[in-house]
Write a structure and sequence with these properties.
There is one protein chain. Helices cover 22% and strands 22% of the residues. It is an alpha+beta fold. It has a single domain, classed as Hnrnp arginine n-methyltransferase1 (Distorted Sandwich). Strands 3, 4, 5, 6, 7 and 8 form a 6-stranded antiparallel sheet that branches. The chain has a two-stranded parallel sheet with strand order 1-2. Helix 2 packs antiparallel against helix 3. It is elongated. It comes from Magallana gigas. This is Protein arginine N-methyltransferase 6. Keywords: Methyltransferase, S-adenosyl-L-methionine, Transferase.
Length: 201
């Protein structure tokens, strides 16, 4: 394939090509979709190098815009309850009854550790306690760098019933033409990335 493929080494922002391109393919997605911050670089390449057909040429059958793959991306959030968290915390309380040693100070510390920042792990579907809320849905052929780097959303979630809220789980989907969807949802059977957890115990 050496006669067909040319490899260019360097930062995406610095690359120079002989002409506009028909297709841009990038696996830029990270945990919670945006963690690795690669999307701005991909959008820079799109704006600079993806083929855009001039308005006066759009009636010609052989003139089409370039394509970016994946073509869209969505981020979701849902609350979850996890008995394992409660069990891990209760381990410290059980020390007093089992060994006659009070470890309540460790329980407080463990709770702080579990609730600090985001964690990455898998969540079972039965641990999700409400329908998910879609936080973003970006058309990657049109979204701007500003829109993907300054995301603020209000959302409302209603739990299925009475449950202990341990935190929130984030997952994403990306789509391709012909209705092909790659999902990291806890309901998906083909998850290739574990889920991102924001714990609020």
């Amino acid at each position: 394939m050496a006669d067909r493929i040319t490899v260019l080494q360097g930062r995406a922002e610095d690359v120079k090509l002989p002409e506009k391109v028909d297709v841009i393919v990038s696996e830029w997605m990270g945990y919670a979709l945006f963690y690795e911050s690669m999307l701005p670089s991909v959008l820079h390449i799109r704006d600079r190098w993806m083929k855009k057909v001039r308005l006066k040429d759009r009636k010609k059958s052989d003139t089409v815009d370039g394509v970016i793959l994946p073509s869209s991306a969505s981020l979701y959030i849902a609350p979850f309850s996890d008995d394992e968290i409660s069990e891990r915390l209760e381990t410290w309380s059980a020390m007093k009854e089992k060994y006659k040693v009070s470890m309540d100070c460790m329980k407080t510390y463990a709770k702080q550790c579990l609730s600090y920042g985001a964690h990455v792990r898998c969540i079972c579907p039965e641990d999700v306690i409400a329908h998910a809320c879609q936080l973003v849905n970006f058309d990657l052929s049109k979204v701007t760098v500003q829109e993907v780097t300054d995301i603020q959303r209000n959302f409302e979630l209603t739990c299925f019933g009475s449950s202990v809220l341990h935190g929130f789980v984030l997952w994403f989907t990306v789509s391709f033409p012909e209705n092909v969807i790659l999902s990291t949802s806890p309901y998906s059977q083909q998850v290739f990335l574990t889920l991102s957890i924001i714990k609020a115990i």
